[in-house]
């Protein structure tokens, strides 16, 4: 998707009339732009197309404006060599275009310019605009009425897709969620949630792919997918194969679990309850989390079983798994020198993995932790199957060892009490030793119940080796992250690394 200016397809005069610096300034103001602090410039802007339906809404008494145009903004970084994997990124920017200024959207103003054949327009971030988001809703509703649930605009190569089984509430107003770091989510009343992918890469997005499979299988353990939006590179489609072409997946519409509670928040509340009950063991605490950990382990097991059923499973040499862990270690030690003293023991643990023979791999979540779970009145839901954002898309689509997901959740169980412990220390610095012991008790109890539930009973020696190694690998990653971003927190993963290496 990145070519020299004179060879980049699709950057027609219709798109090149946009001032790239205006879009660069806009990106710098957003929460989801990952290039903050890196020297860069906007090197291309492509208008992918317009959300269909504005004319239809006008004919039925709705507003004739705005036009909702989806753009792909190319950012090139100069702090790496040209051609490096992270030298170019692409960001999706949907804009609401109005003839006159809209005072209600002043906070979302991007710029104003002359549109060829239209005249001067005022452009706003479309996700802040209820009228613009209503156009998305109507497009999804129109897709449901088309054969196969597919509304395709050949002029723009945009396609809206709908799964059967849910009628959208077109009267629901949109609300943009705040606080997200990598994507943008908009709720439509209490009916549906639209996740707009901001940093995009050509290819199938695992979040859409996995949710489609699990939704069609009627899994009770995920928020069901209602639809999604694709764009196909013009000219890349083989006339003999309409489904060919380089696809970019732009957004997904899914069930909105409005009354659900965030798993991370529930865990923190459980630890706070324990700390507020003097001389009470975790098992007797009013906020005991063991039962929830058990149910969460069973939920993950059910999701993994469905992924195997629909995507299949295979076996790979354990040596390959161990080699990848080993390969990451030197760079981690260089970034976080405190890891150096644990290097030999970590390598010995990875060697034990390499001696296991073959291990099972299949599609997994890829970035599982308590923040990727929701507790509803009917049970736990696992969300966000996009995988680890830092990994290339092609790698996130590959089968992986299911114990990686298990390890991610175990590390999350370890983090929760340590985070609460740190906040309590500010008010009661003298009770640190007792709180530390109680935090460890809470973590051990949650981890044990989760692990036994997931494994369906006693964990075998081979499984325990894999768990230890993936937990160590994750804790090493966390140590690097904390060293770079929150140095005062680095003792949380370092403690885990020391315990694993000494086991």
From TrEMBL:
InterPro entries: Kinase-like_dom_sf (IPR011009), Mak_N_cap (IPR040999). One of its GO terms (molecular function) is ATP binding. Residues 26-129 form the Maltokinase N-terminal cap domain. Signal peptide: none annotated. Keywords: ATP-binding, Nucleotide-binding, Transferase. The keyword Nucleotide-binding applies. The keyword Nucleotide-binding applies. Pfam families: Mak_N_cap. This is Unannotated protein.
């Amino acid at each position: 998707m990145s070519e020299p200016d004179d060879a980049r397809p699709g950057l027609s005069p219709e798109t090149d009339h946009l001032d790239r610096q205006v879009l660069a300034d806009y990106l710098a103001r957003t929460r989801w732009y990952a290039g903050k602090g890196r020297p860069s410039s906007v090197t291309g802007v492509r208008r992918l197309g317009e959300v269909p339906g504005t004319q239809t809404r006008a004919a039925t008494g709705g507003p004739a404006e705005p036009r909702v145009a989806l753009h792909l903004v190319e950012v090139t970084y100069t702090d790496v060599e040209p051609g490096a994997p992270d030298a170019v990124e692409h960001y999706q920017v949907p804009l609401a275009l109005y003839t006159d200024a809209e005072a209600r959207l002043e906070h979302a103003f991007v710029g104003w310019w002359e549109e060829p054949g239209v005249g001067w327009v005022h452009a706003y971030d479309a996700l802040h605009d209820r009228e613009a988001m209503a156009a998305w809703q109507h497009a999804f509703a129109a897709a449901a009425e088309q054969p196969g649930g597919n509304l395709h605009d050949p002029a723009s190569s945009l396609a809206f897709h709908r799964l059967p089984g849910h009628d959208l509430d077109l009267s629901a107003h949109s609300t943009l969620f705040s606080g997200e770091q990598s994507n943008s989510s908009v709720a439509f009343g209490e009916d549906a949630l639209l996740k707009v992918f901001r940093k995009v890469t050509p290819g199938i997005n695992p979040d859409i792919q996995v949710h489609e499979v699990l939704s069609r299988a009627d899994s009770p353990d995920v928020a069901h997918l209602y639809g999604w939006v694709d764009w196909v590179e013009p000219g890349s489609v083989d006339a003999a194969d309409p489904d060919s072409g380089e696809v970019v997946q732009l957004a997904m519409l899914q069930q909105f679990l409005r009354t659900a509670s965030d798993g991370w928040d529930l865990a923190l509340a459980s630890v706070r309850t324990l700390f507020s009950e003097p001389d009470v063991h975790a098992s007797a605490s009013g906020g005991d989390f063991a039962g929830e950990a058990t149910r969460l382990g069973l939920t993950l097991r059910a999701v993994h079983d469905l992924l195997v059923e629909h995507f299949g499973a295979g076996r790979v040499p354990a040596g390959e798994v161990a080699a990848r862990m080993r390969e990451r270690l030197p760079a981690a030690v260089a970034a976080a020198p405190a890891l150096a003293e644990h290097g030999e023991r970590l390598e010995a643990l990875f060697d034990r993995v390499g001696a296991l023979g073959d291990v099972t791999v299949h599609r997994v979540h890829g970035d599982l932790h308590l923040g990727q779970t929701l507790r509803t009145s009917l049970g736990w839901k696992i969300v966000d199957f996009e995988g680890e954002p830092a990994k290339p898309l092609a790698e996130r689509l590959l089968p992986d060892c299911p114990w990686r997901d298990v390890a991610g959740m175990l590390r999350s169980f370890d983090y929760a009490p340590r985070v609460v412990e740190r906040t309590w220390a500010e008010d009661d610095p003298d009770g640190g030793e007792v709180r530390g012991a109680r935090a460890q008790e809470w973590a051990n109890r949650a981890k044990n119940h989760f692990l036994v539930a997931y494994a369906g009973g006693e964990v075998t020696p081979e499984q325990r080796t894999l768990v230890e190694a993936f937990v160590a690998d994750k804790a090493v990653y966390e140590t690097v992250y904390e060293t770079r971003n929150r140095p005062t927190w680095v003792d949380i993963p370092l403690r885990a690394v020391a315990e694993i290496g000494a086991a």
